[in-house]
């Protein structure tokens, strides 16, 4: 099971934690890969396409774990950054609607 927590402050998404693996098996691996792709795409889009300095993002990456926290308010309040979070969340929700047994998703106010 993959547990996903999206952190939001004052209606602005600021980070997330993706933790765990969907499970063992071919279908589960596809779900896990899809979720991982969404989270990593957001991270690299911030850095490589939106030119956010890596020093303004705290990240922790391990097997089955990715945590991101935007440290700079100027980055946090950018509309393009928030749109990227919304796209990622939409993708997760679509996966969750088809495979709810493999992931949990919660939005956490911080």
UniProtKB/TrEMBL annotation:
Keywords: Hydrolase, Protease, Ribosome biogenesis, Thiol protease
Stored InterPro entries: Peptidase_Prp, Peptidase_Prp_sf
Keyword Protease found: yes
Pfam entry (one): Peptidase_Prp
Lineage top rank: taxon: Bacteria
Residue ranges of coiled coil: none
Keyword Transport attributed: no
Family: Belongs to the Prp family.
Listed name of the protein: Ribosomal processing cysteine protease Prp
